[in-house]
Amino acid sequence: MSGGVDSSVAAALLKAQGFEVIGLTMYFDFSPGVIKDAKKVAKKLNIKHYTLNMQNALQEYVIKDFCQEYINGRTPNPCVRCNKFIKFNYLLKIAFSLNATYLATGHYAKVTRSQGHKATGYLLKKAKDKTKDQSYFLYRLNQQQLEHILFPLGGYTKEEVREMAKSFGLSVADKLASQEICFLPNQDYREFLKEYIPGHIKPGPIVDKDGNILSEHKGIAFYTIGQREGLGIAKGYPLYIIRIDPPSNEITVGTKEDAFKKEFLVKELSFILEPIKNKVVLKVRIRYNHKEALAEILPIKNKIKVKFKKAQFAVTPGQSAVFYDKDIIIGGGIIEKVLN
Questions:
Q1: Residues with catalytic annotation?
Q2: Residue 196 is assigned to a structural domain of this protein
Q3: Rounded Cα gap, residues 265 and 13, in angstroms
Q4: N or C terminus: which one in the chain shows less Cβ crowding within 10 Å?
Q5: Is residue 191 a part of any domain in this protein?
Q6: Which domain range does residue 244 map to?
Q7: Same domain, residue pair 71 and 214
Q8: Are residues 123 and 217 in the same domain?
Q9: Do the beta carbons of residue 204 and residue 249 sit within 8 Å?
Q10: Which among 69, 89, 85 is positioned nearest to 193, based on CA atoms?
Q11: What pLDDT, in 10s, does the model give residues 230-260?
Q12: What percent of the chain has pLDDT over 70?
């Protein structure tokens, strides 16, 4: 229970369905306000509530990687790691220690039993509300976890969830949605990096595709593939970051067309049911707000080569590439290298 409307309604729905519900709230140094709201909801629902200090786990499994990825010129997705290492690993173990059978969250996604698939087990699917669907962040869940996970909001829209919050009499019914990356004050990752890794922020050249120096950047950690703003270059036409090279501390810019790519390699693979063993065609999403597109998926040893049918804008190392078969999540991995 984060103190927000989604997790609060998830708890209320399960209570209404006859489950014995226990509230768990993760406490971080930057989030004292969430506990007050979560406790208020727990009191309203008449359920037990526990607060868990998770700052050390967040630091070890999420923040360290977040900083290191930016140092290496990549753009990480901390929510994917948080779900894998904290929410559905550490928190699930806490739930089991309290003799709970399931861990439920306010994520917009669905878990179902497989029907008509070669392998039997649990499937992860998109939520009813496609504008709020969070399946992209959950592709690293495994069968052992999915067996004990409930997503009560998967069949509802955000508007329906807010209406239910009002009908349950929850004080958080009109509370604004939580920020995208919870540990970033004001969502300013650059200020965060200045504080955490000041020694790794070094200016360097911004060059064109021919290697001509056009300007100076403030540190590669402050930039990402496809970025247009903040380059300080007047060319008469828009320039976009098309490559970041940590060894040379160099950023390369080009036209928007140059930022469209077709092929890339994916590492650290994770699959919901079975690994992809042969070439298949699936839809692939390369970041949360990207509309998935058709691509050939080709296994190469312990990696996958993805080749889009049509080039996509800003394929970014460090982000997750997630594979979809209609509304079913097959799996995914981390974008390692853009090929062409």
A1: 82, 182
A2: no
A3: 41
A4: C
A5: no
A6: 202-255
A7: no
A8: no
A9: yes
A10: 69
A11: 898 988 889 999 999 999 999 999 999 999 9
A12: 97
**124, 33: one domain:** yes
Beta strands in 58-121 (DSSP E): 103-104, 109-113
pLDDT at position 304, please? 98
Return the closest-CA partner of residue 325 out of 294, 298, 299, 301: 294
CATH code, domain carrying 315: 2.40.30.10
Identify whether residues 227 and 328 lie together within a single domain.
no
> 188: pLDDT confidence band, cut at 50, 70 and 90?
confident
161 and 33 part of one domain: yes
pLDDT score at 321: 98
Total number of domains constituting the chain: 3
- How far apart CA 162 and CA 174 sit, in angstroms, is 7
Helix axes 33-45, 5-16, angle to 10 degrees: 20
Q: Is the pLDDT of residue 133 over 90?
A: yes
pLDDT tens string 204-215:
999 999 999 999
| Residues 248 and 263 placed together within one structural domain of the fold | no
Core vs surface per residue 283-307: b (16+ CB within 10 A) or e = bbbbbbebebeebbbebeeebbbbb
When pLDDT is cut at 50, 70 and 90, the band that residue 30 belongs to is low
What lies within 8 Å, CB to CB, of 129 at 6+ separation is 108, 156, 157, 158
